[in-house]
């Protein structure tokens, strides 16, 4: 096995070494933080990637990690990720280490003073009232004119109209909509 593939294998072993600890943290997050399923999965992935990176770079025991070690990880991650992704990763890792200290797995929290990168506050583009009205009218017209189509197409057009009406009326996110259970 080459030196590089040996390092990769070691880093995977490290992340699997801590997999049950990370899993326990994600269970804690699920029970106490009210985060969405996708965010929980992202946190788990972010933490495991951080631990694998740490091991790959010789930091193979989280009890011995220092803040500067995690800053090196942040610098590495910042090369290939947007500030918003880096911010989420830092929040996930900081929460994980705080929890590890709280439950007594580590004595001191190396992530405690890590700063979350500033993210430019960009407001989303929204429809004005006339654009929203035009969109809703077009969707309603499509649904009403689909009576000559197959039953399946009519159902799809009615579903689409209902989805847009629900999104517009409630302001819910698409991820929240797709997570709805109709039963």
Explained architecture:
The protein has 183 residues and is mainly alpha-helical. The protein has 2 domains: 3-102, DNA polymerase, domain 1, CATH 1.10.150; 129-178. It has 8 helices and no strands. The protein has helices at 3-17, 19-32, 37-56, 67-78, 83-102, 129-145, 151-170, 174-178. α1 packs across α3 (37-56). The longest helix has 20 residues, at 37-56. The radius of gyration is 23 Å and the shape is elongated. The model is unreliable at 1-8 (pLDDT under 50).
| CA-based shape | elongated
Instruction: Give the tally of β-strands.
Output: 0
Which architecture name of the largest domain does CATH use? Orthogonal Bundle
N-to-C series of helices and strands: HHHHHHHH
Concise summary:
The protein is an all-alpha fold and 183 residues long.
Keywords for this structure?
DNA polymerase, domain 1, mainly alpha, elongated, about 180 residues, 2 domains
């Amino acid at each position: 096995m080459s030196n590089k593939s040996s390092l990769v294998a070691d880093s995977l072993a490290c992340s699997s070494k801590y997999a049950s600890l990370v899993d326990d943290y994600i269970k804690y997050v699920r029970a106490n933080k009210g985060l969405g399923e996708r965010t929980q999965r992202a946190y788990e992935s972010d933490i495991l990637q951080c631990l694998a990176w740490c091991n790959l770079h010789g930091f193979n025991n989280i009890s011995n990690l220092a803040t500067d070690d995690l800053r090196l990880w942040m610098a590495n991650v910042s090369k290939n990720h947007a500030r918003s992704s880096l911010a989420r990763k830092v929040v996930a890792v900081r929460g994980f280490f705080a929890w590890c200290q709280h439950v007594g797995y580590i004595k001191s929290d190396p992530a405690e003073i890590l700063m979350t990168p500033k993210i430019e506050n960009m407001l989303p583009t929204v429809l004005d009232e006339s654009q929203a009205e035009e969109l809703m009218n077009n969707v309603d017209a499509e649904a009403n004119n689909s009576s000559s189509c197959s039953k399946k197409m009519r159902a799809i057009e009615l579903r689409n109209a209902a989805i847009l009406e629900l999104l517009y009326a409630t302001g819910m996110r698409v991820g929240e909509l797709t997570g709805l259970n109709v039963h």
